């Protein structure tokens, strides 16, 4: 599970946001096979076992875990590694420790949470896996500052990737009532490694 090839350039973000000194970057146009991924996920098995925080354990949502051995052989992993390169300081790299897909539909409850403790430097690479998405369907991921104010949002788009510091408070929003498609997000969690 080494980083991407040193000759591969980092991906260029379409948008960057700084939230309380923590970085968030949006990447568009790199995953051409989002529709094929969407079709594959429509046949995948999900379990209702995922929780956002310890105090929301009574409100589980749907998840499909991906083994890291399988993840590192996928083109989406190489793209994710290239996107994390711009977050690395000299002598640092990132290593995946978990990968999974969440699915949400109208009526699901998704809670605010962080993916790591402050100062850890872990990253989350969040892919929107859809073949189409209408702006009226909702399903955005919203990001909050330290005062609980919403300061950024990323809406689903086919193949969109959002990479962010896992200490940023965020929440996925379920699709609206007029959306009859599932909202799939594929997440890869990365830990910072100092060489």
Automatic annotation (TrEMBL):
InterPro entries: Oxoglu/Fe-dep_dioxygenase_dom, Pro_4_hyd_alph, Pro_4_hyd_alph_FE2OG_OXY. Gene3D superfamilies: q2cbj1_9rhob like domain. Keywords: Dioxygenase, Iron, Metal-binding, Oxidoreductase, Vitamin C. PROSITE patterns: FE2OG_OXY. The keyword Transcription does not apply. Its cofactor is L-ascorbate. One of its GO terms (molecular function) is dioxygenase activity. Residues 86-192 form the Fe2OG dioxygenase domain. This is 2-oxoglutarate-Fe(II)-dependent oxygenase superfamily protein. It comes from Aerolutibacter ruishenii. The lineage of its organism: Bacteria, Pseudomonadati, Pseudomonadota, Gammaproteobacteria, Lysobacterales.
């Amino acid at each position: 599970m080494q980083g991407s090839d040193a000759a591969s350039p980092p991906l260029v973000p379409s948008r960057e946001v700084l939230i309380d000194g923590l970085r968030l970057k949006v990447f568009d146009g790199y995953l051409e096979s989002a529709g094929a991924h969407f079709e594959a996920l429509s046949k995948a098995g999900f379990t209702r076992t995922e929780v956002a925080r310890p105090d929301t354990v009574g409100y589980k949502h749907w998840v499909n875990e991906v083994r890291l051995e399988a993840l590192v052989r996928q083109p989406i992993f190489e793209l994710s590694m290239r996107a994390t390169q711009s977050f690395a300081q000299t002598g640092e790299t990132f290593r995946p420790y978990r990968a999974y897909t969440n699915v949400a539909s109208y009526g699901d409850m998704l809670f605010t949470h962080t993916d790591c403790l402050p100062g850890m430097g872990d990253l989350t690479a969040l892919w929107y896996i859809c073949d189409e998405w209408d702006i009226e369907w909702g399903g955005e991921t919203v990001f909050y500052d330290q005062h609980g104010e919403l300061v950024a949002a990323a809406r689903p788009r086919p193949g969109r990737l959002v990479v962010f510091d896992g200490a940023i408070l965020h929440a996925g929003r379920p699709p609206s009532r007029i959306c009859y498609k599932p909202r799939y997000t594929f997440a890869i969690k990365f830990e910072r490694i100092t060489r």
